[in-house]
């Protein structure tokens, strides 16, 4: 069993603490939070040990779970890696691509593993259909959220859109060719609404929209590929898979048949993949533990976290 400690006991940090505490793969050592008032409150309410410093916590564990504001990700990761500790680090991996590259170099230098918290990779709706998404050529994503002051210290691209950037990069096995984007600041000092068009070298185009001042929440992605349309609702955890195949010469009167201008007939049919309920955050933490103990590659590597950040930064730069 791996000893784990959490840096940061805010909203998400408390969720990580609870899940690590109930996991069979970890022994929770405790947490560190620089806000002493909050640290005392969390320790008193939940009974978790509060460490006096970052270094004291790092020395006591095998795995450091970094759930601090993005600005401090690099410093926390650097301290943990230099002491030979594995790191789980919330998205985005760092504040800059250069910081992310140094984190990767340190992990290699000290022979430890790292995983980035791109939690949508573990969403049950996505895991139910990801193997059916093959060479998509057009992708459309909408990630809309009601306003919440938490997270507005960074542009909406790093706050919300980066989830969809990571999902797209995990599916499109082609380098980015060109990015066009626009962003608008409405209530924050950084953009609250953003739209980006990413063109890949293989011809795939992805159109991403993110907003954190919406009147309703939405997290939907649509994937179009040859002979198939796949829709993933990350919020409602639902999927829609519509496929086409050449229509048989004789078909049922209730079959859905389309005929194009050339006379080619296609039969439309639907698939209903089974969606297995899960706790995505627990899954990402436990698969990381398995990667450490079984000496395998984490599902979301530090390099993949860096690539998502790199594209996010290119989007922000093109505003």
Automatic annotation (TrEMBL):
Signal peptide per UniProt: none
Source species, domain of life: Bacteria
Gfo/Idh/MocA-like oxidoreductase N-terminal domain residues: 3-118
InterPro entries recorded: Gfo/Idh/MocA-like_OxRdtase_N, Gfo/Idh/MocA_Oxidoreductases, GFO_IDH_MocA-like_dom, NAD(P)-bd_dom_sf
Domain GFO/IDH/MocA-like oxidoreductase residues, every copy: 156-216
Pfam families registered for this protein in UniProt: GFO_IDH_MocA (PF01408), GFO_IDH_MocA_C3 (PF22725)
Transmembrane segments: none
Record-level Gene Ontology MF annotations: nucleotide binding
PANTHER family for the chain: BILIVERDIN REDUCTASE A
Protein name: Predicted dehydrogenase
